[in-house]
Model the fold of this input.
Amino acid sequence: MTNRGTRWVSPDGTPRGVRQGEKGTRIVLWKEATVKDSDPDTGERLDRPVLLARMYYVFNADQAEQLPDSYYPARTGQPVDAIREPQEVLDGYLANGGPTLRHVEGDRAYYQARPDQVTMPERSQFPTPEAYYGAAFHEAGHSTGHPSRLNREGIAEFDHFGSDRYGREELVAQMTSAMLQAETGIETEAEFERSAAYLQNWLTAIKGDVTLVPQAAAQAQRAADLIREPQRRAERGDPAPEPDREAA
Done:
């Protein structure tokens, strides 16, 4: 299997398909299935549940040429609706020592430790509000690793994309997003499955070291708590913390 795209010729002679040189993203599709088995003691025929997994390389429609219109979701030009609770969590974090947030036309969401900024595509580019907040919480999770916050190795001592250190940080960020989606009541089946596939993908990339999962989960819980704390303080009516005079 290759992660490079292929092109083919359409009936009218024009090239169609993934542009040459484009690289795909590896995903793992898994599902439950049932197989017939026999009880080793009685010989009785039983249905045994199993998990089936298959790896694919996928490409964005923007990496291809001459695809049917159905591959390009219609743009409404209107932002997806904000959802009150996740928006309050996000706003509270950003306004109380969190990173800055900017929206730009594009197809990437990412966090930069310098200048401590989350960049998100415009809301209108997301198919659902849940997808928007899932991505925003993922990048907010990364931002908690900044040296001024939790000082996590994957952010504070970032080496390069694709490294084991980078993979561990991706596990933390996606688990943080999944926790915040569940806590704010916006987790959907589609987002749950996307998170599961994303996590499995990175576990494969970092050689399937399952001992990383509880470590990443503990770090993600601290990250989620940090992001939610300003909103929780507001709900309790607690006063805002005093500014750090030495840091000022």
